[in-house]
Specification:
The protein is α/β, with parallel strands linked by helices and 246 residues long. The chain contains eight helices and 16 strands. The chain binds beta-D-glucopyranose. Residues 65-67, 75, 77-78, 104-106, 130, 132, 134, 136, 150, 152, 162 line the site of beta-D-glucopyranose (BGC).
Length: 246
């Protein structure tokens, strides 16, 4: 079955049709730059551009980098504050003239990894983390998602964890892999103290270079594994949510 997903990220807004039998894109994705400031009208325009490019006529799944409850966006750590309290599903659905499912970006990536990637067949407590502009989290208990966990905003070394341990923080502070891995290790230790996950899936763009830092995370009880869907996890997870609208 063909569905359609759009992933709103800090640098790009990417979308593609998705083949749900394979959990993969069925056409090359289209990417437009995320407008700055990433205020609602500009982001909605960009999403419309991506969806119209494919002439999509059915439901569309969209990810958002903040808390999403009942179609409303409630936080906006890395996008314009104009999103806070917005009925975003209504906004997108009106602009596209199509049914829309909206969910947190890390939740979407996690759902896709659980179905088609590193989380397949893994029960118990599984924690997916995405390291990018911020840190996203998706928590699963026997495959069931607890949405909007926002664990990137736990306190780490007196700061918001994503300020210290995201991949943007690695670049901002020009940290070596070893120095950054120390911070990620401390973050994971904190998470293990709270949730005792059996598996931690490490995703986000940086997971492509997992061999540079996963071997340095030596103190963990959980099995720490790299994500498998890489850049497409958000799009696939969004498309899975859209398919549920039918
Ligand atoms: C946001 C999360 C999001 C994560 C990754 C955080 O700053 O609060 O909702 O999942 O960034 O984009």
């Amino acid at each position: 079955m063909k569905s359609f997903g759009v992933d709103i990220g800090g640098s790009g807004i990417k979308g593609a049709p998705v083949d749900l039998a394979r959990g993969d894109l069925s056409a090359e994705r289209m990417k437009v730059l995320t407008p700055h400031p990433a205020a609602p009208p500009a982001v909605v325009d960009a999403v419309c551009q991506v969806v119209e490019h494919f002439g999509r006529r059915g439901p569309v799944g969209i990810t958002f980098p903040g808390v999403v409850v009942d179609g409303h966006t409630l936080t906006a750590a890395n996008v314009d504050s104009g999103w806070v309290g917005t009925d975003a599903v209504d906004l997108f659905a009106q602009a596209l003239g199509l049914p829309v499912a909206l969910l947190n970006d890390a939740d979407a990536a996690g759902v896709a990894e659980m179905a088609y990637g590193a989380g397949r067949g893994r029960g118990g407590v599984v924690l997916m983390l995405t390291f990018g502009t911020g840190i996203g989290s998706a928590l699963f208990v026997d495959g069931v998602l607890v949405p909007n966990t926002e664990l990137g905003h736990l306190e780490l070394g007196g700061k918001d964890a994503e300020r210290r341990a995201s991949s943007a923080a690695k670049e901002r502070h020009d940290l070596s892999w070893a120095k950054w891995a120390e911070r990620v290790d401390a973050y994971l230790a904190h998470l293990e103290g709270l949730f005792s996950p059996q598996t931690v899936i490490v995703g986000g763009g940086v997971s492509r270079k997992h061999d540079r830092f996963l071997p340095l995370l030596t103190r963990r009880r959980a099995e720490v594994v790299p994500a498998q869907l890489l850049n497409n996890a958000g799009i696939v997870g969004a498309a899975m949510a859209a398919a549920k609208l039918r």
